[in-house]
Fold this protein.
Amino acid sequence: DGIQGSKARDIWTSKKGICFSETALLSQFCLLKKTVDGIPEVLVLGGDGRYFSKDACQTITKMAAANGVRRVWIGQNGLLSTPAVSAIVRNREGGIAQGAFILTASHNPGGPTEDFGIKYNGANGGPAPEKVTNDIFKETLTIESYLIAEVPEVDLKNIGVAFSSSKFSVEIISSTEDYVALLSQVFDFSIIQKLLKRSDFTFIVDAMHGVAGPYAQRVFVDLLGAHPSCLLNSVPLEDFGKGHPDPNLTYAHELVERMGLQANGDVNPHAPSSIPAFGAAFDGDADRNMILGEKFFVTPSDSVAIIAANSNAIPFFAIHGGVKSVARSMPTSGALDRVASALGLTMAEVPTGWKFFGNLMDSKDLYEGKDYNPLICGEESFGTGSNHVREKDGLWAVLAWLSIIARFNESSKTLISVQEIVEQHWKKFGRNFYCRYDYEGVTTESADQVMTTVRSCNPATIPMLNGSRCVKVDDFEYLDPVDGSISPNQGVRVIFEDGSRFVLRLSGTGSSGATIRLYMEQYMEPSDVIAHVENGSLPSTSEALKELVAISLQVSNLHAATGRHAPTVIT
């Protein structure tokens, strides 16, 4: 019957429970590559260390041997972050690997009764194209047998050749070496190191017991000389310490509290007396990130816009002639658009899913099309990255921010803070007030009802927003300029004449029920930002969006349809 509920864009995630523990289910992912995309001679294997990962490494290795794979590279202890996998596929031994299996359920919980998943990446190091995932899913409905080889259990602990025969070998590789080497070429570590040595700069990074821990140890402690106390929850655990490894204001609560904030992003009146100047969190497989300053939350939409506006602080872009293009997912705020317009950059708005960014990055090399690189891109769901790999990259985003902070403080005796950097950006480009409400685990029927309700609305019936009328209600559809594919029904947009909007879409990366995401955005002109900052009257996000929130909930009838009276998560 296939794997019911397992297909979610480029990532294949199980339902709750350990249904992946059956060898036959795991085997499908190896066998199917023979019929869909060809057998890779060199395969990369690893993941975020969640429960069942080590067992999965053993089974996939045996399936790979039986199906004609010649070499398998496995991260030490089965650990490889998602961006590290991309770097290894693209760069190790000249980029000879043709594919990778990543054992992760992304930012979802792990453990015997929680989530497990397998994701396939192609020879470009990026998520499998939609055609491949669709073909794989079709095969799961008809598969009747699988091949498995009698290969000895592999010792995942020791780096080196773990098994070798005339036709098949398994090598345990460093989880960090290839990826960190790439990052050292992208950034100027000496500039960041100077920042970390400042007496008025302290920082903390929360790995949330995911795979980011070893990478944070290697970069921040071993190479940049920071004290180990800068690392929080840095030991990978199979159940993520019974936490939810999603780097947002709700689930990264330990970091949020240390940074002097509440779960809604407002300042905590009971904040600790000593607060770091900078904080960051990563998700389970280390491709997502959250950026915080002292008592200050940087939205992911603002984060990617600020990185793009200050990309000259990152050597990778200077070496390649400067940033040429920027791109964002449709639900992400328009802050990046304003940077692109001011700097004369090519701007792309794509559906949610990193593969769409990957197409832009590979346009010239794989499709003989327009060259969009160097490119910076991001999603409001805490994903940020560039064309150095073909995945979003949490550690890259953190190092980008540290590079920008270092540049701002090169000649400043007193520390220019994260908040000051963000406010300077708002004064120049304006501020896109932005918020996302997540309603997790609702029934599929109620989620569909909400979407249908909004989709059928006539703009004339939608209440005015601060005197601005609604001018459009539509479903976002994307025509890929690279491969010509069409992606319909990517989210319902309700747009007002002043550019404010709210968006509703259903998430594809959860594993239990449906998740409704409600996005709200309203713009403030630079002159108004300047006046408010000078007067100390800049409204909080919740204050600025109060009327838009009320309208969106009224129009969608969300609370009545779902029986929920508050979102699960606010970001």
Remarks:
- Residues 394-408 form the longest helix (15 residues).
- The radius of gyration is 23 Å.
